[in-house]
Design brief:
mainly alpha
Length: about 180
């Protein structure tokens, strides 16, 4: 038996039994819960604690990112929504109707990501309408982060259950 054959048998490249998939899932949710409206969440703590320039920096960064998001929504929002719906429905059909494990895995990464985008857009709209600054902005960002973390816990649990089901269904030897 060659080295390549030995390694191929030892390393399972299926989606839900691959360590890299689970690392990507953890990194994705960690990153999503750290950057709220394009600003690192530690800036909120720094602005609350020290005031002054950190408050101005946070207000400016959030204002810039909110304006960018709203510009994209106004100029190409309908097209992006249509493309996202097409992509998600294609993945769901390939994965859960036709049984492609890689499509299931990608769907379980991308679908919650689309929900996070919606949460960020709703928060951005609220910040823009209220012209939130200071404590109002901190509250909006904290609520947004809480919702993203809650969504992350739910979808990590759902993904883990589905992955365990797939691994038990296929079996330890892939057949």
């Amino acid at each position: 038996m060659s080295l390549f054959e030995t390694l191929s048998e030892m390393i399972d490249l299926r989606s839900f039994s691959n360590l890299w998939y689970w690392i990507a899932l953890a990194v994705m949710w960690s990153t999503l819960s750290h950057r709220i409206l394009g600003a690192p969440f530690d800036m909120v703590h720094r602005a609350r604690k020290y005031g002054g320039q950190p408050v101005q920096d946070l207000d400016d960064l959030v204002r810039i990112n909110v304006n960018r998001m709203m510009f994209v929504v106004r100029s190409a929002g309908v097209w992006l929504l249509g493309l996202a719906c097409f992509f998600l429905s294609a993945l769901a059909t390939l994965g859960f109707v036709l049984g492609m494990e890689i499509a299931q895995a990608v769907f379980l990464l991308v679908f919650p990501l689309s929900l996070v985008v919606l949460i960020n857009l709703m928060t951005a709209q609220k910040v823009l309408q209220k012209e939130a600054q200071g404590e109002d902005l901190y509250k909006a960002m904290t609520t947004c982060r809480f919702l993203i973390q809650l969504l992350g816990m739910i979808f990590i649990f759902v993904t883990a259950l589905w992955g365990m089901y797939q691994n038990l269904n296929i079996g330890p030897l892939g057949g």
